[in-house]
Amino acid sequence: MKLNLNSKQKTSLTLTSNFYYEVHLPNGQKRCCGSMRDVETLLSIYRDVVYYKTLLGPVPTTVDVPYTTIVDPKLPMQKILPESTLEEFIPNYHD
After folding, report:
1. Burial, 24: exposed, middle or buried (Cβ in 10 Å; 0-12, 13-18, 19+)?
2. Which residues make beta-bridge pairs with 74?
3. What per-residue string of b and e applies to 39-52 under the rule 16 or more CB within 10 Å gives b?
4. I want to staple 23 with a disulfide (CB 3.0 to 4.6 A). Which of 6, 31, 54, 88 is the partner?
5. Residue 24 in contact with residue 53, Cβ under 8 Å?
């Protein structure tokens, strides 16, 4: 999967494939791989590896996302840190 940002800063998720590989290792663990290259890497490390190509369902063209509208998006100013006791910085000043 890759994430694309358009000029309006909306995010859209684009699937590059509609499947993944599920690799079963000899010790009973499972690994999910997005490419055949990853499967081949596991095949070079482990012996007796079994893998399956798992198809995903159809990709929806639109997705409804719930949202809420904020009436006043400004946050109140917060002053948490104490005032600084440092001297003012003077450029090009050397001791």
Report:
1. middle
2. none
3. beeeeeeeeeeebe
4. 31
5. no
Q: Are strands 19-24 and 30-33 parallel, antiparallel or unpaired?
A: antiparallel
Q: What is the pLDDT of residues 2-11, one digit of tens each?
A: 444 444 444 4
Q: What is the pTM of this model?
A: 0.46
Report angle CA 11, 19, 2 to the nearest 5 degrees: 25
What digits encode the pLDDT tens for the residues 23-40?
999 899 999 998 999 999
Determine contact, residues 39/21, Cβ cutoff 8 Å. yes
Q: Which residues have CB under 8 Å from 12's CB, separation 6+?
A: 3, 4, 6
pLDDT digits (tens, 9 = 90+) for 66-94: 888 877 778 777 777 777 888 888 888 77
Residue ranges covered by each domain of the chain: 19-57
Enumerate the β-bridge partners of residue 21. 33, 53
**Radius of gyration in angstroms for the set of CA atoms belonging to the chain, rounded to a whole number:** 27
